[in-house]
Amino acid sequence: MTEMDPGLLITLITIIISGLGIVVGTAIPALAEGRAVVKALEAIARQPDAASDLRTTLLIAMALLESTAIYVLLIMLVLIFANPLLDRFF
Amino acid sequence: MERVVPKVVFNIFGLPIRDTVVSTWIAMVLIVGAAIIVGRRRPIVLEILVHFLNDTVSDVMGRPARPYLPLLGTLAIFISITNIIGILPVLNAPTRDINTPLALALVVFASVHYFGIRSQGLVGYLKDLASPIFLLPLEIVSQISRTLSLAVRLFGNIISGELIVAVIFSLAPLFVPLPLTGFSILTGILQAYIFTALAAVYTGAALKARETKSSESSESG
């Protein structure tokens, strides 16, 4: 690989890593949330009386699972908009 | 690209005031004004709202939530109004800036410890925190990470909604971003509920041992 301008190299690596990171970082929480919803729906079907308890627990659990995807998004935002290596601070 | 960091609008006595701070003031005026006006004409609406919050928080905490309702109810109402206010054209959602969710998370952190110490006494509360002593480092780390994750969850949801609307608006303006804007209203209210529910769970966990013991002793006494 020819010697590139270091800023260009860092930008390139940042873009590739951001893309990969978002794909992996949103796929895994989405799968986990899907499994949680499946179990919750099965439990509601088994006991419709406990539906509101289950709904509350399900919502809280999904928010906690979602927050890991938000962590990934936060790092991607920092890398793209406020990359310390490139001295970009919008 | 859209600005991610809010811009400074004016200065008061040399302190830079951001546009999100101005939005917070407008939200405060809106909430207090709406409460006063609705309270004069149809106070039943306020009662319904307070009862709804009371039932929701009691459900999550597993105990009567009356003493903790001022803080938790205020969190719910304030966060949902400030999340929704970002829809209006000139205003920015205050929770879009990392500082507002961070401040709210720090308030929850301080108030959880305050409620725990108030109900269990300082020594009792510290003993409760360190009950399996080898879990104490894990407990300390989890306190910090809980607070941070409260702030980051709220901030990340709101700013990602705004970024997506801004990107789509720059591609295809007029009516195309509207469904996404509607979805961010839903997300705003949902995130307010999640924040309040998690704050209620943390408060309930800090109070746990004492309340059940006192109710048992009052039943047997």
Would you kindly provide a written description of the structure presented here, covering whatever features stand out?
The complex is a heterodimer of chains A (90) and B (221). By secondary structure, chain A is mainly alpha-helical. Chain A has helices at 6-46, 51-81. Chain A has 2 helices and no strands. The two termini of chain A are 31 Å apart. With 221 residues, chain B is mostly helical. Chain B has one domain. Chain B is 76% helix and 4% strand. Chain B contains 7 helices and 2 strands. The longest helix of chain B is centred in the last third of the chain and has 43 residues, at 178-220. The N and C termini of chain B lie far apart (68 Å). Residues 210-221 of chain B have low confidence and may be disordered. Chains A and B meet through helix 2 of A and helix 6 and helix 7 of B.
Quaternary structure type: heterodimer
Query: Helical element count of chain B?
Result: 7
The number of distinct helices of chain A, counting runs of at least 4 residues, comes to 2
Sequence stretches where pLDDT stays below 50 over 5 or more residues of chain B = 210-221
Specify the structural class of chain B: mainly alpha
The percentage helix of chain A is over 70%
Mean pLDDT metric of chain A: 86
